[in-house]
Amino acid sequence: MYIGQVAGTVVATIKHPMFAGHKLLLVDRLDLGGRTTPKYDIAVDTVQAGVGDRVLVLDEGNSARQVLNVEPWGPVRAVIVGVIDEIDLPENKPGFSEKPGLYAARGAV
What we know:
Layout (H helix, E strand, L loop, with lengths): L1 E9 L12 E8 L5 E10 L8 E5 L2 H7 L11 E5 L26
Parallel strand pairs: 3-5
Antiparallel strand pairs: 1-2, 1-4, 2-3, 4-5
């Protein structure tokens, strides 16, 4: 699992039947300071996330398929399983207190 930020939507008119009725979102992975990294996933949205939302992404194929109830087959690797409202970290944890990006409320950038 990782924390990400929804960067955009993915529209595919021709796709595997398993994706019918599911929204696909482009999710940037975030580092521990709340900054985007070069890594991203296209994830199936199960929580009605939107662009700019900080989200919890399950990026292990077997677990993702279980969430979507398409086990054992299906071309899914990543699924959004939560929209993050807040993250609380100890203030004395090195490297976190001076990086406020991750503490922002839902949808804030």
